[in-house]
């Protein structure tokens, strides 16, 4: 299965098992907008809980807030979003489809990189153990030709990006003969800037000065509440404010599922520090956040840092945590040292003094800030894409299993009477009563036990508990573990402790 095919299978799986549905599907859906179904919402809530508790419970100097989607329009002037939250867009006149010009060029560059990688792989195969990759890259004519092409286009692209030169973007697209993947033509419009913020009207005067934006990030809600939280919480620097909430961006996207949505959720934390100490905190938060990811057990090799060379004007350090998605390593989380840019600008524009009196220094300053920002939906996709497996079983059979980290699984335990008679459903109900206060569960008495196991595997339930005729006498049940499929006989009275050991979120938090 190619990566792209796997991605298609994932989308279908999410729909079939109630994780994610295309929004308003009965009207043919809405591009880049998705709804979470009965399973999806549980998994999503568990991801949010893991983040929230790690942030606000394990760091005694981090507190949470919940600010609104709507904010005073000046917020977005101060943050720079009105002036500069733009993507360079280009339309194909034949397909009438819209693309990001930078993405078209990046895809073109990625194809050249792929060609080079293929040449190198061929060389490796041909020369075996004696293969010297550096020498091969320096001498192979095919590699050299492709590398020269890459360097030339990459250089022009970076220059266009730095100068925000829209005509230069277009010229690169024309010179590289980049075609629209749908129409196959090169009939392009000029490149234009397109602001990603959605807007709506705040009141009914209709005279144009009442525009409200749907927040494109949750961070600004934290910055404008900085003073309130610092004062009412008697917070001493360094301290952080965390928030989970919806954000909206008018993204121009193609087939990226929940990786890039128009309405999505962010988990952001702004950590306020004394100016001059921000690099130390930046390093600490990098380490802290990577640990949070790796503790889930999805393989440390599937994460990497991508430090930014080109920094946004407000940042003095920035990195992404990238995850190995089915379509390659891509940004999952951003960590930025944002200096005093946001608080400083809000201070200027609002005219309110936003400063901290540092008793140790005996002076006031606008705090510096280190931000950690992760998309809930992107995290959902990371967990789901990593957990999805098709396993070949003995006897030629196969099963689809979601090996979700157990504390994140939407359903922790399924209670299954072997047959629908002989008092087994009644005893199964007693088992349900034993566990329902602690764990999300499903009760299922339909179909063969094998089919029921498969259904639970497909939604990632860590434990299946089967009640059979022997259970009536020995008050034991058979517990089947999802990943190993191993079964053990367990007294009903010990069930809770056994399940808890594996699925309790606090065990995960203890690893941090
Ligand atoms: P990208 O370069 O992928 O557009 P970004 O650098 O614009 O992302 P940030 O503004 O740093 O992203 O947002 C922080 C996090 O929010 C990202 O790491 C990502 O997980 C998430 N995120 C951003 N945009 C979207 C979106 N359109 N859909 C889903 N998640 C998103």
- Tell me what portion of residues adopts beta-strand conformation: 15-25%
Number of strands: 23
Ligands present: adenosine-5'-triphosphate
Query: Per the principal axes of the C-alpha atoms, what is the gross shape?
Result: globular
Q: How many independent structural domains?
A: 3
Which structural class best describes the helix and strand composition?
alpha+beta
Largest sheet features: 7 strands, mixed
The CATH class of the largest domain is identified as Alpha Beta
Any key phrases for this structure?
BirA Bifunctional Protein, domain 2; Herpes Virus-1; 512 residues; 40% helix
Summarize the topology.
Elements: H1 3-16, E1 20-22, E2 34-36, H2 38-56, E3 62-65, H3 74-78, H4 81-84, E4 86-91, E5 98-100, H5 101-127, H6 133-139, H7 141-163, H8 166-175, E6 192-195, E7 199-201, E8 211-213, H9 219-224, H10 226-232, E9 239-248, E10 263-273, H11 278-294, E11 303-307, E12 317-325, E13 328-339, H12 341-350, E14 356-358, E15 363-365, E16 368-375, H13 376-387, E17 388-392, E18 398-402, E19 413-417, H14 424-435, E20 441-443, H15 449-459, E21 463-467, H16 469-474, E22 476-481, E23 487-491, H17 495-503, H18 505-510
Parallel strand pairs: 3-9, 19-20, 19-21
Antiparallel strand pairs: 1-2, 4-5, 4-6, 7-8, 9-10, 10-16, 11-12, 12-13, 13-16, 14-15, 17-18, 21-22, 22-23
Helix pairs in contact: 2-13, 5-7, 5-8, 7-8
Adenosine-5'-triphosphate binds at residues 217, 249, 251, 260-261, 264, 266, 331-334, 373-375, 377-378.
């Amino acid at each position: 299965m190619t990566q792209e095919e796997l991605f298609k299978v994932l989308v279908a799986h999410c729909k079939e098992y109630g994780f994610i549905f295309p929004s308003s599907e009965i009207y043919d859906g809405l591009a880049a907008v998705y709804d979470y179904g009965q399973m999806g919402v549980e998994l999503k809530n568990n991801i949010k809980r893991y983040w929230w508790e790690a942030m606000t419970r394990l760091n005694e100097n981090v507190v949470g807030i919940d600010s609104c989607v709507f904010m005073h329009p000046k917020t977005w002037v101060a943050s720079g979003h009105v002036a500069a939250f733009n993507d360079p867009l280009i339309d194909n006149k034949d397909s009438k489809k819209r693309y990001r010009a930078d993405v078209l060029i990046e895809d073109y560059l990625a194809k050249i990189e792929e060609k080079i990688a293929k040449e190198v792989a061929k060389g490796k195969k041909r020369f075996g153990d004696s293969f010297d990759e550096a020498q091969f890259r320096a001498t192979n004519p095919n590699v050299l030709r492709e590398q020269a092409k890459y360097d030339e286009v990459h250089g022009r692209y970076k220059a266009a990006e730095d100068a925000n030169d829209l005509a230069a973007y277009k010229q690169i697209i024309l010179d590289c003969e980049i075609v629209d993947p749908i129409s196959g033509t090169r009939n392009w419009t000029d490149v234009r800037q397109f602001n990603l913020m959605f807007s709506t009207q705040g009141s009914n005067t209709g005279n144009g000065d009442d525009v409200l934006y749907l927040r494109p990030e949750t961070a600004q809600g934290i910055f404008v509440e900085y003073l309130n939280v610092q004062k009412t919480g008697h917070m001493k620097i360094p301290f952080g404010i965390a928030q989970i909430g919806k954000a909206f961006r008018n993204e121009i996207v193609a087939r990226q599922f929940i990786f890039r949505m128009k309405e999505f959720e962010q988990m952001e934390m702004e950590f306020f520090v004394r100016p001059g100490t921000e690099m130390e905190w930046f390093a600490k938060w990098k380490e802290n956040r990577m640990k949070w990811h790796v503790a889930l057990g999805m393989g440390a090799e599937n994460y990497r840092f991508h430090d930014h060379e080109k920094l946004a004007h407000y940042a003095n350090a920035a990195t992404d945590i990238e995850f190995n998605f089915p379509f390659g390593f891509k940004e999952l989380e951003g960590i930025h040292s944002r200096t005093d840019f946001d608080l400083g600008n809000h201070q200027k524009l609002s005219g309110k003094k936003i400063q901290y009196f540092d008793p140790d220094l005996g002076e006031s300053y606008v705090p510096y800030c280190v931000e950690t920002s992760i998309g809930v939906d992107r995290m959902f996709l990371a967990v789901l894409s990593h957990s999805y497996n098709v396993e070949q079983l003995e006897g030629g059979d196969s099963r689809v299993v979601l090996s979700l980290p157990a504390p994140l699984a939407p359903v922790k335990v399924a209670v299954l009477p072997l047959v629908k008679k002989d008092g087994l459903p009644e005893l199964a109900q007693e088992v349900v009563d034993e566990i329902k206060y602690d764990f999300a569960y499903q009760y299922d008495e339909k179909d063969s036990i094998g089919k029921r196991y498969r259904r639970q595997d497909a939604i990632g339930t860590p434990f299946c508990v089967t009640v059979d005729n022997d259970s009536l006498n020995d008050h034991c049940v058979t517990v089947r573990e999802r990943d190993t499929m191993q079964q053990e006989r367990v007294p009903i009275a010990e069930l809770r402790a056994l399940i808890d050991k594996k699925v309790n979120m606090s065990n995960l938090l203890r690893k941090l």
